[in-house]
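User: Fold both of these, please.

Assistant: Here is the first one.
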Amino acid sequence: MYRNEIIMKDYPIFQIDDILVSSEILTEFFACDYEKCKGACCIIGDSGAPMEEGEAEEIEKNYHHFSHLLTDEEKEVIDRDGFFVIDSDGDMVTPLVRDSQECVYTWFDDNDSCFCAIERCYCKGKGSFKKPISCSLYPIRASKLSNGMTALNLHRWDLCKDAFAKGKKEGIHVYKFLRDPLITAYGEEFYSALEAAASSLK
């Protein structure tokens, strides 16, 4: 269960085992508004999506399932750079198409809307890997601290302003919108503790 809250920078941080959770994740509202953004988070950014250990191997293992959805340019990047790269901060991330901000795993439909090619095939029953967990957890960003703990913070991006507005309109908190990926990443017990922490803030 969650431990006593730690006050940092004038807002509470909840500790659940070895994970520090920003209270904004419990109090802020969010719900993706794809009709507004058209999946632009796949093609806008100065770095690829953060990746965990083992995810590159999973992507490579499932490559034959989704490679037909990729452009020739995206395939060329993968052939040249591999299934992940190390960015300027030293983090493992998905490769980008050179001279653009587009993730190499992006698939465009006939309306130029953006989707994750890996997830597209996974949802059709093809492949065993959905996509990097960092993509599923957004707008939560996880970072490893020097003491070995993990910090979960809310990332605010103007690109997602409509998602914050939609979440507030529909009364959906960040942690509720991301229930499934949070459980996938950290387990049922963690999510139950998260709910308890949210109740304590009311």
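And the second sequence with its predicted structure:
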Amino acid sequence: MRVVVGLSGGVDSAVSAYLLKQAGHEVIGIFMKNWDDDDDSEYCSSNIDFVDAAAVADVIGIEIEHVNFAVDYKDRVFAEFLREYQAGRTPNPDILCNAEIKFKAFLDHAMRLGAEKIATGHYARVRLNPASGLHELLKGLDPSKDQSYFLHRLNQAQLAKTLFPVGELHKSEVRRIADEIGLPNARKKDSTGICFIGERPFREFLNRYIAKAPGPIKSDSGRVIGEHVGLSFYTLGQRQGLGIGGVKAKGAQLKALQAQGLRGAGAHEPWFVARKDIAHNTLWVVQGHDHPWLLSTQLHAQDCSWVSGSAPALGPRAAKTRYRQQDAPCEVREVDASQCLLRFEQAQWAVTPGQSAVLYDGEVCLGGGVIDTCNAPVPQV
């Protein structure tokens, strides 16, 4: 087949292209440029990445094309990213990027090149279920690298055209293959964080687009203990960058903490962001990782997308409320094409509006939606 591979400059997509070429396919590489701003800054690595991708294409013996999707990215991904942060939520732009750019704009471009399939370096798998005739999205075989969480919004038409060559491998094997065939990026460090932000300080980046709006930081007792720079710059469960130290609990507060059974009550426990009160521009923080305000047994998600094209049945499933989380047993209490209500066997930590709740049936990713509410206690003081 003619297969168009998204070459990012990293080792995973490079080995994907190599494996496809070895399998006898006609392989064409595409380097996607998704961000034009501050192209010459120390944080933007797209030029370096393209050089690496071109070097890989030369070693493998395939053509490579440089395609700019920056306008699509700004319209379809970044605009939504800013809207969510301004509303006090914490979005996951990588999920939207996959749905709108890598498996839509890129897929459309590949089809114009006469491709029968596209391929990326994601750690996931696609399987055609002969009984249902539907394509299933499966976890990658390497549990430490599985990226199905980021791909849960893909639909049947997209999966039917997609290959994930390294989804069957462990990362160590991918590195070994890259070393063996002499790929120039065999030992290149994996990229982390949001693609267009790079290694830059996140608050510094966001401040260029969202104005600071300082307000009070309050503890669970209602006491003002500091000032935040703007609610958009914080996320639930955040521990670093709050500008407040551990405050020793005493008196009535100490007794209340001990009554709740919190570990280390009375010690200099770290503070965690627990709530963002948009109406009063107040950031609520609590001491102790296991504080009740950080724990939820139920969540509601909206804007759902189901891989099969229809909502899963009610009943027991597993879910992730953030990437790299272990699958958490839950029960689907309500579900339809656009929303779902999940109840967990064990309380989940720092369930965050704007992040995605993704459902699984064993190794099969069923889809998911954007978290809008959870049942963790809210401030009453």
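DSSP finds eight helices and 17 strands in the chain.
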